Amino acid sequence: MSVRHLLATAAAAPLAIVGLATPAAAQVLVQPVGAYTMTAGRLWSLVAAALGLAGIVIGGLALARSTGRIGSGTGRRGAIVALAAGLAGMVIGGLVVAAAEGGPGTGYGIVGGYVALVVGLIAMILGGLTLTRARRAG
């Protein structure tokens, strides 16, 4: 075997390995995601749902505070925080749903995105209701 042939084989070997590995890598990328695997889509939908849930809690507390005799009109700051948290949860949830390339169980977080949309909407309704009551009372 000549030196020229040996060098050509040595240069072509990595290309052959990459060429053979490409279909195997594509097959790994197509494999389904596990039920408990934390993907980026699932993480963002979880963040959005947590923001919406925080908005519901804060909006509910502000609403309870605004309906009482002692603290009437004091729920304005809580209402604004609930509106902001609900809006942030809805925007992030909407982006997750828009970016999802598959349905439930694919790891894109589409179910969590829809949950975040609903929870964020509830937080915004509570915040708006509290803000309306605070304006009427004040």
Distance between the termini: 95 Å
Order of helices and strands: HHHH
Which percent bin holds the helix content?
over 70%
Strand content: under 5%
Which structural class best describes the helix and strand composition?
A: mainly alpha
Structurally, how many domains make up the residues? 2
Question: Features of this protein?
Answer:
138 residues, mainly alpha, 2 domains, elongated
Could you please describe the fold and organization of this structure?
The protein has two domains: 31 residues; 104 residues. The chain contains four helices and no strands. Helix 2 packs parallel to helix 4 and helix 3 runs antiparallel to helix 4. It is elongated. The model has no long low-confidence stretch (mean pLDDT 80).
Layout of strands and helices, then pairs:
Layout: H1 3-30, H2 40-67, H3 76-99, H4 110-137
Helix pairs in contact: 2-3, 2-4, 3-4
At a glance:
The chain crosses the membrane at residues 42-66, 78-100, 106-131. By secondary structure, the protein is an all-alpha fold.
